[in-house]
Amino acid sequence: MAFISCLSCFTKQEEEVTELDYRHCSLDDVPNDVFAYERTLEVLHLDSNNIRDLPRPLFHCHGLRHLGLADNELGTIPQALSSLSQLVTLDVAKNVLTDIPETIKQCKQLAVIEASVNPLQKIPEGCTQLVSLTELYLNDCFLEYIPANFGRLAKLKILELRENSLNSLPKSMDRLVNLTRIDLSQNQFSEVPEILGAMTELEELWLDGNRLKTLPAMLGRFSKLRHLDASFNHLESVAPDIGNCTALVNLTLSTNDLKEVPETLESLVNL
Fold first, then answer.
1. What are the pLDDT digits (tens) for 50-69?
2. Which residues contact 203 (CB under 8 A, 6 or more apart)?
3. Which of 31, 48, 202, 221 is deepest in the core (most CB within 10 A)?
C-alpha cells in the first residue's frame, strides 16, 4: 500500500497513493493535496488538527474506506457524506457535532462509527439504518434515550454508551444477540435492563457509575462473560446466579452498599 505522511506529502510519488496521514499537523483546512489522489485514496487520517469545515472535493474520494476526523473542531458534516459509499470506518470523535446527516444511511458498507464526545443529544436517524454496523461508540454524547428502532442494528458486536443520561433501553434491543461488549457505565440506570438477558454472547458488561440496587438473577445466563464492572452504584444485593458466570476473570463490586456477597462467587475460580 502506498502511503504518505504529512512530513512527506509534498513529495511526488510514482506509485498510486492509497493512504495519507495528516494527524497532528496543526491543519486548519483539509490539504488540497488530498484531492490529487481522489481516484486511488482509500485511507485518510486527518485526526488531531483544527479543521472546522469539510470541503466538497473531499467527498469526490469515492474509494475511501477509512476516514479519520477525530479531535478537530467540526460543527457539521455535509450531506455529501452519502457519496462515500465504500466507507467502512468513520471516526468523528471529539468534535462539536450536534448531528450527523441522515444521508449517512447511504454509506451501506459502514461497519464502525466512532462519534464519542460530541454534543449530539440524540442518535441520528440515519445511523439506525446502517444494518452492517458491528461497532458503535457514542460515549459522552448527552444522550437521554435510545430510539425505538435501534434493534435494526442486529450485527452489532460492540456498543459503547458510557457517560450519557440514559435510564432505559428500548425493547427492540433484544435483537442485538451478537453483542460481545456493551458499556452502559456512568448513566442513570436504577435497575439492570431486562433486555440484556437476550445478549447471551456478552463477554464484557460495564455498569459502573449508575444507581443500581441489585444485580439480578438473569445475569447468570452469561456463560461467556469475562468482565463485569458494577462498581460505584448503590448495590445492596447480588443474585447467587452470578456464580454461573464461570468465565469471569474480572468482577468489580467496589463502592457499593453491600453487606455480603453470595457464597456462589467462590465457584468463580478464574477471578
1. 999 999 999 999 999 999 99
2. 180, 181, 224, 225, 226, 227, 247
3. 202
| Plot region of 183 (φ>0 → left; ψ -120 to 50 → alpha; else → beta) | beta
The phi and psi torsions of 64 (rounded to 5 degrees) equal -60, 130
Is the pTM higher than 0.70? The answer reads: yes
Of 218, 243, 215, 240, which is closest to residue 229 (Cα–Cα)?
215
Helix (H, G, I), strand (E, B) or coil at 20: strand
The grid coordinates listed for 122 are: 440524540
Query: From the DSSP assignment, how many helices (H) and strands (E) are in the chain?
Result: 0, 14
Nearest CA among 114, 151, 116 for reference residue 131? 151
Tens of pLDDT along 198-230? 999 999 999 999 999 999 999 999 999 999 999
Sign of CA dihedral 261, 266, 270, 271: positive
Burial string for 65-103 (b: 16+ CB within 10 Å, else e) reads: bebbbbbbebeebeebbbbbeebbbbbbbbbebebbbee
DSSP code string of 31-54: -GGGGGGTTT--EEE--SS-----
- Tell me the backbone φ, ψ of residue 196, rounded to 5 degrees: -60, -25
Strands 227-229 and 250-252: parallel
Q: How many other CB atoms are found less than 10 A from the CB of residue 22?
A: 24
Residue 260: the pLDDT is 94
> Which of these, 250, 270, 174, 175, lies nearest to 208 by C-alpha position?
250
C-alpha 129, offset from chain centre? 16
Task: Give the model's confidence band at 16: pLDDT under 50 very low, under 70 low, under 90 confident, else very high.
Answer: confident
- Which residues, including other chains, have CB under 8 Å from residue 37's CB and lie 6 or more apart? 16, 17, 18, 20, 61
